[in-house]
Amino acid sequence: MADNQPGSLKLRKEIGLLGAVALVSGCMIGSGIFMSPQFVLVYVGSPGASLVIWAISGVVAMFAAFSYTELGMVIPESGGEFIYILRIYGPFPAFFAAINFILLAKPCSIAIMGISIAKYITAPFYPECHPPQLAVKCTAAVFILVVAILNSLNVRVAIRVQIVFFVAKVIALTVIVIGGIIHIIQNSATIVENFSVETSFRGTQYSLSTLGMAFYQSLWSYAGWYNLNYVSEELKKPEKNLPRALLIAISLVTGLYLMVNVSYLAVMTPKELMSSNAVAVTWGNKVLGSWGWIMSVAAALSAFGSLNGSFFSGGRVCFVAAREGHMPEILSMAHVHRLTPSPALIFTTVISLVVLIPGDFQSIVNFCSFTAWFFYGITLGGLIYLKIKKKDLPRPYSVPIILPILVLFVAIFLVLAPIIDNPQIEYLYVALFILSGALIYVPFIHFKLCPGLLRKMTVFLQLFLEVAPADKNL
After folding, report:
1. Which of 86, 304, 329, 390 has CB 3.0 to 4.6 Å from 386, enough for a Cys bridge?
2. Mean pLDDT across the stretch 382-397?
3. What φ, ψ does residue 432 adopt, rounded to 5°?
4. Looking at residue 357, what DSSP letter applies?
5. The pTM is what?
């Protein structure tokens, strides 16, 4: 509920332990496990190496999530990387983090989820070829708009939807695991071909570029381990529920991912998996026969739940950045009746639809992961600084310093390896896009030019959208 003080408006604390687990694991189990296995296998070249990549990625996600938990306890505010960089490094670096996550990382994530849903929805209608790009992107746009409306109307409903779809996607992955076990029992030759010591690592690619790209794809499937830090002001008892939810969610997801990949490789040869348009659909057609379409529906539902969770957290980054003066003031306001950050959600929707127009799944994942891990590294460096220089800060939860150090090394590897081994001009474009934020920061944020025009626009939109400034909910 809103605060009892007159004129005060706050977002509600609606997220309990179950909702937190559903938000984290529901975002993690999305399009990635249904789309990325083929790309991981393409990059590393062998089934054994791909399983190692998936296992290491789960450990990295767990270490990173626990490190973020300590940051969430020391800086108990919503906003994730933006708010942590702001409090540790200052406003100038924080603005670049805001630009990255508001205009690049989160919209790209939402666009990818939309594309994934659309591919699985349209796949049964085009069994012999890839669905037309226009059909895929129009379908993706429809689902993005549906989720935007849902999150703008009611926080509680959005969390309930997240829980329902989390249960549905766990059931879908369990079906894949059980189907794989049955197939292994019935076809022992597959075990020899794909999982024996002699053959499972045959053809492995060891270059820095291929390993980096493989980790981009697998870690993309674990993306979501950080989402609770974006909404910590809406989390009930964060000092208890934050670490518990992360431990439960990431352990569950890592176990499921490994078993699902084993199931894929048990049913399909590596060549079939790498050439598949939709891995889960190919698996369903081989195992379930005429009922294979069920996997298209299950994958689409899974991606929809992940889209909902990513949208829920993504809008909060924009909301918090605006509240701190790094984005237009209108984006820091909440609806006076529904208590949702509707202006920030609308803005995120528009940017996501723009990103959707030119993008494709594989390239968006690679370049989005490149920038994301750059800022994860900066954030973890800030935690290491706090643990060394600010030991007196109150910490209801603390991790051994070796954990953020290890994840920082992983972040450095993921940022530098593809550039060193296989430089591409697109990485320069992405870096220039983020750095171009200085052209906005200096005149409009630092020197606050054109305040009159912005004030008039803010008042108009405030009345039109029925929103008002929202206070922190700590």
Report:
1. 390
2. 87
3. -65, -35
4. T
5. 0.79
